[in-house]
Fold each of these.
Amino acid sequence: MPMILVIEDDPTQRLLTSSVLRSAGYEVAEAEDGASGLEMARALNPALVVCDVVMPRMNGYQFVAALKQDVALSGVAVILLTAMTERSHMRTGMTAGADDYLSKPFRGAELRQSVATLLAKRAAQSEQYVRGFEQQMSEALEEQKKTLSLRYEKRLLQELNGRWDTEADAHSGTQDRQATVLAANLFSLIRQRIPVQQRAVATRRVYQAASDALYMFGASLLLPSGDDLLAVFPAAPGSDVPRSGLIAVRAAFALQKIVNTVFQAMVLEAMCLPDEADPASLCIALCHGQISLVRFSDPLHGGESLTLACGEAVDACRALGEHARAAGWQVCCVEAVLAGIARSVRTGAAAVVSINAQGQGVLAQELHALADA
């Protein structure tokens, strides 16, 4: 229950007033004059004060004025009690800041009703203040949120524009180069010989073995292209085709051995279909010519960049690989790759292969092994 402070210099009247309030269930504190009552109010912070007017040291009017000047106590309700019933006295009390005025002698019901009314009024005012404060806080926070949001969006736009410009400058357009390109039908082979439930693990295993071999032989870039894995062997300065071609041929035979070994191991582990059940085998095509690397990036979301390969060397590899699979060749190349290294390779059949819709053809050569193998 709320705390009520009774300030009365008359002991009998103080006892009577306190008894009425305690019987109504309120917690009551007592003071014998205005000065001690003010000190007690500061210590207890009561919800309401019932105060006599005529008292020594500090009368009721002076008490009310001092109470209302204290910021911490200015909201405390005050009922003044006095035997002076003139209207001027009531106006003086109200002007000082009193909330109600009871004339002595008063009935207990009057005091209880006045106390209950003022406490209810103060509670309503407090609730209204809290609601208003919450509304103001909510509006202020919403305004601050909008301000910060606009500031953040502006900053984010600046950052993204900066990142976009930087990434676009670094990765936009195409990079054209002369290179020897190796295309191996690694992914179609995995799809044909590996059961679905084992395919993810097997793909990772086969790709790791293939990439280790290709990078070891000097490939500068590995790229997936449909069912093929492409390896790019850049030409040496001055378009030294023989050097890059010989390196790519050596990489092709090494890749063939390593991939076959991995598949044989997976057959033993029951992860892979045996050769007898599926005649699919690794087919490798080698071409030399122009390759265009197109790099895409997503600076907006910070995603990894993606590089795609196209160009005459890639188209030739794709057409050559299709012919080789149909002819049963395992390793083959175009004539340009063999330029200057023919004595280093044992060859087989040859055929003219069309590489585009215009009917342009290239001489394709089956490769059996390295001459020193």
Amino acid sequence: MPNPTTAKRKSERELVVTRTFDAPAHIVFEAWTRSELFKLWWPPKSMGMHLRSCEMDVRVGGGYRLEFGHDAANTMAFFGKYTEVTPPSRLVWTNDESADGPVTTVTFEEKDGKTLVVLHELYPSNDALDANIGAADGLTEQFGQLDDLLATLGASA
């Protein structure tokens, strides 16, 4: 794999996922903040997850709600608030669907037309991270899907 995603547990409560993308930071940032782009790469395809709705009000105090499921009767929602939005370099949001949800910080650092993305999740406890550590595998796939999307956006950038 020429551009691997790395996922490391940094402490009892912290998970850090990194990947460098072959696209400028403003385009990568848009893929994280525009719902029509986000929904194209966020659901891990191998898990058969379908993103039924994607609402994103990307501003400080704004919220997001992602609803997954095969049909309306069997859905799972992820939601929270944006606490920091600094285009095109930083996003911070809460994960409010559970008391064990982390605070997620994503930074976008551009160098020579490529963007290093660092996703940092800070969980409220060691047990909360232990219960969610499998999400790192999904993020690896998701970042690969983002890479594929960015390759298609490059032509129009």
Amino acid sequence: MKKLLSLLLVAVLALSVTGAFAAVTDIVILVPNADHGWTGAVLTYAEEKAKEINDAGKYTARVVASSDPANQITQVEDEIDNKSAKTIVILPYDNTLEATMKKLVDSSIPFVMYDRVIDSVAGSAVSVVKGDNEGIGYETAKRFVNDGLKPGDKVLIIPGDNSSVPEMRNNGFFKGLLEAGWTQEQVNGIKSTAYTGWSRSEGRRLFTEWLDSNTIEDIKANRYIFTHDDEIAMGMLEALKSSDIDAAKKEAFLGAKVILGTSSGLNEIYSVLRGIHQKDYTAEVAQLGDLFSVTYDPGMIKIAIQDMVDSLDGKEVPKDHVVPVSVVDATNVNEFQGFGDAFAK
């Protein structure tokens, strides 16, 4: 009887161990929820890549979306505590993930970090995959200079959030200005709005608030605006199309021939550049001195996930995997594929 019980116990333990291993996912992909167009596209591309991996059958992949930083912290710590992930690919929600990312390092679970870089743990990552955020800022500065920006001219930055992404975009922008003859004091004098959180509605609100709080003379003097995302630029265009703005200030803004630089590759901004947007922004765009968007493809998440697959296969992967950028305007927009819906007439 005792022997039978012992055999049954061994069998149960074996099943338990087998079940535990079966529950382990080779690659868990942690990304923010679809709170705006770019993150929505990241989520879509991540799910496409996970399906490709699962269909191939060699590894398993699972995508987990988070609603906010606290939610993502819980998700990472659950993966660590439950030992349910063999590897992790993560787009950190923001810098509040730093302490949790250090726990991930201590857990010895290999990870790839994508887009938002937390410097204190970057050296421990299998790979850090990102678009050239500094390149976005640098190319914007070059374009502004080509469009007539002089040292000390007024510039307004409308930023994303408090993560590494806006910091790197600003660093590249400032580097470009310093190379163009700006002094550090002049760079330090550049003004920014509050963070938009990458939100179109918040970008619209902050832009409207900026117009309301400035004189017509100041608005005319501020001809160069660097937004960190196409959603923000679309918010600005929507504000200009609406009746929210004082007519005299709108006239001053458009009459100044403002140079508007943005980034990411939203199909909607490409529709504006093509002159085919269903809301017809052609009148507003015609009064801008320039409108351009620097690429930051959300499809790069597939590169991040592939880096982890390659690592699992024993292949060497680049530690610092930077994807180059391109400047898109009305002259070359047809050469680029954006993300999200196109809004054609």
